[in-house]
Design goal:
mainly alpha, 12 helices, 73% helix, globular
């Protein structure tokens, strides 16, 4: 079986959790307190990791999520729960592909056909999936320094031009705590923090199982705090209303960077962040779907690369517009559907695993088979 190191796992979690999220204003309903909502959602996501998702991994470190469903739920119930996860992984990949294509059309390539942009990103992702887990994680490891350098470069320039106004974050909790919590739960928990359920497909590849817990929690915390910081940064530069309605608030922030005639047009750097972030998240879900299908059909994920990719490609073209997929995603899935896959089903699976384990111990004590 392929192997990855704890460091590579940590890098992937950072890149996956960050994705394209820093480019947008999360929990915009909380207005100037949106960064507090992100912090609350991050803590809730951490609790979900510590008490549900990671305990599942510790119980069966060599099995992925789909294998666990079949082992503990049986053949028929296993199919009943496994196929919805395949659809969940495929849909998440579809949304990232379509989001990338629409935003590239909107900001950088307005004359390029949407289908051409989608074909390009799908070909790159399909190649990564077919090459395997080790290759995908190594590519992510190489891309992390690129992301870090670009973000530091942009932050440095933003600091120089003097567009940061911390007063925009005041007064804190002007409308009370309720709107802040309402913006965090369940939307921001579902996206991006609850998405860590996908790593139940990847943790089995880590070569040092004892390092899974610290590598996961440290990298998750780093990514989460960075998202809190970028949310606060966007709010300190743009008014909450402008940051909430702007397609990519960080793109607006980048357009404010002008140092004489020497430094301007930072849009391409934001586009690079968008491409890398969306590509990693989309490919990670694509990989998850291929592995899930492989577990169901008892084959290799390489054989599932083409079928899964075809579904994602077709699905990305089904939305009528950018706003259509945004409305469908945030009004329905983030609030009602995703928590089922990220919280409810994993919690039930863990409960079933613990009951089965306790039953085996009792049988061993009484001498029953």
């Amino acid at each position: 079986m392929e192997k990855i190191s704890p460091y590579q796992l940590g890098v992937m979690i950072i890149m996956f959790e960050i994705g394209s999220s820093p480019l947008f204003l999360l929990a915009s309903e909380a207005k100037r307190d949106a960064w507090i909502s992100v912090l609350i959602a991050m803590v809730c996501g951490m609790l979900l990791l510590v008490f549900v998702t990671l305990p599942i991994q510790r119980q069966e470190p060599d099995l992925n999520l789909i294998d666990l469903l079949f082992r503990y739920c049986g053949k028929w119930a296993g199919h009943l729960f496994a196929w919805p996860y395949v659809i969940y992984f495929l849909y998440k990949s579809v949304r990232n592909v379509r989001e990338f294509g629409d935003l590239m059309n909107l900001y950088l390539l307005p004359q390029s056909p949407l289908i051409v942009i989608i074909i390009i990103i799908m070909l790159v992702s399909a190649y990564a999936v077919y090459m395997g887990v080790e290759v995908f994680f190594r590519v992510t490891e190489v891309l992390l320094p690129v992301i870090v350098v670009i973000y530091f470069f942009l932050l440095f320039l933003i600091g120089i031009v003097g567009v940061i106004h911390v007063d925009n974050l005041l007064p804190v909790l002007e409308d009370g705590v309720r709107p802040v919590i309402a913006a965090a739960l369940p939307e921001v928990v579902s996206f991006p923090f609850g998405e860590m359920v996908l790593f139940l497909m990847y943790w089995r590849f880590v070569n040092k199982k004892k390092k899974v817990l610290p590598a996961t929690l440290i990298s998750y915390s780093m990514a989460g705090l960075f998202l809190v910081f970028t949310n606060a940064l966007i709010l300190s530069i743009l008014e909450p209303d402008l940051a909430g309605i702007g397609g990519i608030p960080l793109m607006i922030v980048a357009s404010l960077i002008r140092i004489t005639q020497f430094v301007e047009r930072m849009d391409p750097f934001v586009a690079i962040l968008l491409f890398i972030g969306v590509w990693i998240k989309q490919t990670a879900y694509y990989f998850g779907a291929a592995m899930a299908l492989a577990s169901i059909f008892k084959t290799t994920y390489k054989r599932m690369t083409l079928p899964a990719g075809a579904v994602i490609f077709i699905g990305a073209l089904l939305f009528n517009s950018f706003m259509d997929q945004i409305r469908f995603g945030f009004e329905y899935n983030v609030k009602y559907h995703f928590p089922i896959f990220q919280i409810v089903l994993p919690a039930l699976l863990l409960l079933l695993m613990l009951i089965r384990k306790k039953g085996k111990k009792n049988n061993a004590v009484t001498g029953q088979p």
